[in-house]
Write a structure and sequence with these properties.
Length: 89
């Protein structure tokens, strides 16, 4: 599967980097034009990948929320999607 290169969250476009050296990061939405959303977890068909992707996407969507809120939401959402059968093709 070829990873995506960009994604738009709430009308703000981000460059997606799946080869990040940090655990994951998301630039603030007011940092044009080189905003990045980074996920260091190798893309795999597992719940951990789903969690990291969900976690960073939630930062992009709700930048103003604190880390505890993002962690809780990412855990709940990734667990729900995994149990519902989400898998990479």
């Amino acid at each position: 599967m070829k990873p995506i290169k960009t994604a738009t969250f709430r009308g703000v476009k981000y460059k997606i980097d799946f080869d990040a050296e940090s655990a994951g990061s998301c630039d603030p939405p007011n940092r044009p034009p080189d905003r990045e959303l980074c996920v260091s977890e190798p893309i795999g068909n597992n719940q951990k990948t789903l969690y990291y992707m969900t976690h960073e996407a939630l930062h992009a969507l709700f930048w103003q929320r604190d880390e505890d809120d993002i962690v809780e939401a990412a855990q709940d959402l990734s667990r729900f999607l995994w149990r519902a059968g989400w898998r990479l093709k």
